[in-house]
Amino acid sequence: MSNTDNPFSGGYGSASGTTTVSYGGSAPSAPSKPVGALIKDTTTAGFATDVIAESKNQPVLVDFWAPWCGPCKQLTPIIEKVVNAAGGRVKLVKMNIDEHPAIAGQLGIQSIPAVIAFSDGKPVDGFMGALPESKVQEFIDRIASPDGDRDAAIQAALDAATQAVAAGDAEQAAQIYSAVLDEVPDHVGALAGLANCLIELGDLDQAKAVLAQVPADKKEDAGVRAAEAKIALADQVAKLGDPVALEARLKADPKDYQARYDLAMILNATGERDEAADHLLAIMKADRAWNDDGARKQLLQFFEAWGPADPASLTARRKLSSLLFS
Q1: 51, 61, 69, 229: which is the annotated catalytic residue?
Q2: Catalytic: 72?
Q3: Is pTM beyond 0.85 here?
Q4: Per-residue model confidence as pLDDT tens digits over 82-107
């Protein structure tokens, strides 16, 4: 999900928020890739593929060295050991600046050994000199946190977003969901969460754009379905009339079921869920066949939009069961 599509992109939390989550860790994960795939030499011509493109999959360290450099010879076994132990969290690309000086010159490197970390196609960090193993480990952990820590950080962020939603802070929750999507663009829980927040904030067009990014095999996710139902209801309500006029129509003719139905839609849009459900139940009680059982169908759509655990859903389901099976 690009920042252009994401109005809330940024770090987890904000200056006024309640939660900040960051990635990081101290212990490398177990090796998961063949050692030979993690370390290679590159050339000026191969730099775009070996570093720029590859760094979009995981961070890539570029070790600028030369055969005559003593500290380079000290650093090489250390950095190779730590990269191998990281098990694929990072890759190491070595560039001999005597044979390929152009890239080092473009990056302004004036002494070696110099190690520059690339992520998402851009240089993000680096160090110079022959650091001890502990410092090289710290550097790698800083730019590429272990997968377990990353997953834990994402879950912590999602939990924080859920708490923000419960506290009525849709904007804070949207910022957190957006930060998760910056890390995992197809995370269905974050996509659904962000869409629901945008609906609460009144930005239906952006919510639709977010839902359009949900992978095809995740369209049946409960959060996605709830957001789609809310948007459908909002689109319907936008076409309805004045609630005062609808109340007047009902007072004049209690059998004006269309007025009662439209009023239920408006009440739901304004958060009066119990009242909205009661109007639909009243239509069902009076004329189950009205509008091809339209009142019951709309009530079921309410349940989907509200969620099964919502108090209004629970109350209306009990009333619906009594009406259907008594």
Answers
A1: 69
A2: yes
A3: no
A4: 998 877 788 999 999 999 999 999 88
